[in-house]
Fold:
Amino acid sequence: MRSKLFYWLKTYLGFSRKESHGFLLLLPFLGLLIIVPTFIKQYKAANSQDFHKQFLSKIDSMEKAGMVMVKSPGPLFNPQDTVKKSAVDKQLENIQRVPFSEADSIILQIVPGIGPGTAGRIIKYRENLGGFHSTSQLIEVYGMKPETIDLLWNFFEFTPAIFRKINLNQGTIEEISSHPYITYGEAKVIVAFRNQHGFYHSLDDLMKIRIFKEEWIRKLAPYLDLG
Structure:
C-alpha cells in the first residue's frame, strides 16, 4: 500500500521519495487543521444553546415567582452609537454651507481633494466663464475628479450665478474669443456673419452659421447677450 502511494505521488505530483515521506508526515497535521476548527465551531454552538436554555429557564422561574417583565420603550441598542464619524462628517458639524458663487480660493480648500492649485484653477475658470450655470461644468476644470465634485456640494450650495455675458452685437473678436467656449476662429466667424447680415436677434440667427453645432450653441447660450 505504501509503495503504491509513493508511486502515485511520483507519477501524478512529481514527488521524489524524500518529498513523499515529508508529505506523509504532514498529512496528520493537515487533518488537524480541518478537524479542529470544525470541533471548536460545534463546541461554541453547543455552549450558546446551553446559555440560551439557561436564560429562558431563569426568565420562566422569575415569571412563575410573580415578576412581570417590562419592555424598554426605546431601543436597547442603537447601531449609530458604534458608528465612527468620518473626518468629513466632523468638518461639516463645524461649518455652514455658503453659496458656491461666493467661495474664494481659500475657502474652497476645506474640501478634501482640493488644494491651493486646484482651488486657484476653479476660481480662474469661473472668472473666465463669467460664472457657473451648472454643476457639471466643474469637470471642465483641470484636475477636478467626479468624486471631488460630488463631495464639494456637501460644503457649498449651488445656484446658477452668471455675472458676465458676451455681447454678440457689440463685442470685438478679441472680446468674444476670451470666453473659454469660443476659439479665436469661431469668434471671427461670428463677427463676420454679423457684419454681413446685421445684428443677431436670437439664437436662431447664430444657428444659421452652418458650421456651428446646435449643442455647442446651446452650451454657450447662458453666456450670450444680444443687447
Summary: The mean pLDDT is 82. The longest strand covers residues 98-99.
